[in-house]
Amino acid sequence: MSMFLTPSYPNAKQCPACDSDNTDAELALYDWAYTREGPFAYSRCNDCGALYATEELSPAALERYYPRHYAAYVDDAAFGLIRGTAHRVGMAKRCRTIEQLCQGGRLLDIGCGAGAFLRAMQARGPWNVIGLERDQKAVKLARDSGLDVHWGDIATSNLAGAFDVITLWDVIEHLERPRDILRRIAGWLAVDGWLILRTPDAASRQARWFGARWAGYDPPRHRVIYSFGALEILARRCGLALWQVPGPQGSSALASLSMRNLALAHEWPHWLAESQIHPLVQIAWWPACAFWDAIEGGAELVVAAKRLGTTNHPYG
Q1: Would you tell me the crossing angle of helices 279-296 and 252-265 to the nearest 10 degrees?
Q2: How far is Cα 140 from Cα 126, in angstroms, rounded to an integer?
Q3: Which residues touch 101 (CB under 8 Å, ≥6 apart)?
Q4: Helix (H), strand (E) at residue 235
Q5: Is the Cβ–Cβ distance between 131 and 91 less than 8 Å?
Q6: pLDDT tens-place string over residues 33-76
C-alpha cells in the first residue's frame, strides 16, 4: 500500500521489469485521485507488457503525492458501516490466500499501513506478525493497537529474516527499482518461505476498457504497472518462481474509481463524479465485474512466489 522510495530507474528507456527498450510512444496520464495534476509520461513495454513512468521525480517530489488522507494511512476504525464491512471481507480474503499455502509462522507485511491485515492474521492462528511501514503516523496507529511495526523502507531496513511469509499488498507498483528491492526481500525468506503480492494488472480487460482513465495506473504514485508476464520475468531474475493465485480477483473498487476518473476528465459536476466511489456504487458494480472476472480474471494480480527449485506447483 505504501510507497518505498528509491532513486529513479537509471535508464527510463528500458523496462524496469525485463530491460527491453522495445516500447510504445509515451502515454500521458493524470493524477485524478488527488491532485488532478499531469500529464505524467509513461511507456508500455512491447515485450513483457509492463507500463512504467519515464520521467524522473525526486523522492521529495513524489512524497507530496501521498497526502495525509492517502488510503493506506487511514485507521480502518474510521471506515463507515458499508466500507468497513467491505474492508473486513477483503482482509479475510487475504488471510485465506495465506492459509492455503502456510498455516502459521513468522509473517512480515511490507507497507502495512495502520496494520489492518496484521491484526486480521493475528486473530486467525499461530502467527508472529511484523510490519514494515515508512509513514510515521501509520506506524503510530499500528503500534498503538499493540502491533510490532518497524518504521523505515525496504532498502535500508535492518529487519532480520527468515520469514515464513512476506506480503506486499499493493506495494510493488510503487517501486522505482523493483529488481533491487525484490532481491532484498527474497533474501528475507525462509528456505521454504512464501512471498505473496497483489498489484493492478496492466493486461486486464478493465485496463483496456478505461484506457488512460483506469484507476490502476494511479500516476505518479504507481511507477511500474505489471502484467503477469512482466512479474514472472522480474521474479525469475530475482531467484524466485512465480504462480498466479487461482480464482477471480475483485475489480469493483477499481471500476468505480475509474468511473470517477472518467467523470472528472469529462468535467461532470463534482458531486456526481465523487458519487461514483460511494460504497453502494461499488456494490452495484460487483455483478458485472464478477461476470467478467470469471471469464478473464480480475483487474488485479495476486501471485505467490518461492525460491527457485524449492517446490512444485502449489495449486495443482
Answers
A1: 110
A2: 24
A3: 165, 194, 196, 304, 314
A4: helix 228-237
A5: no
A6: 999 999 999 999 999 999 999 988 888 888 889 887 776 656 66
E strand or H helix at 303:
strand 300-307
Q: Which fold has domain 27-238?
A: Rossmann fold (3.40.50)
Q: Are 296 and 251 in contact (CB under 8 A)?
A: no
Q: What are the domain boundaries of the chain?
A: 27-238
Q: How do residues 101-138 score in pLDDT, each as one tens digit? A: 999 999 999 999 999 999 999 999 899 999 999 888 89
Can you point out the beta strands (E) in 71-186? 105-110, 127-133, 149-151, 163-169
How big is the chain, counted in residues? Answer: 316
Q: What contacts 90, CB < 8 A, 6 or more positions away? A: 250
List CB contacts of 60: < 8 A, sequence separation 6 or more.
none
Distance of CA 239 to the CA centre of its chain: 21
Q: Give me the sign of the Cα torsion angle 56, 40, 201, 199.
A: positive
50, 21 in Cβ contact below 8 A? no
Query: Per residue in 166-195, is it b (16+ CB within 10 Å) or e — as a string?
Result: bbbbbbbbbbbbbbebbeebbebbbeebbb
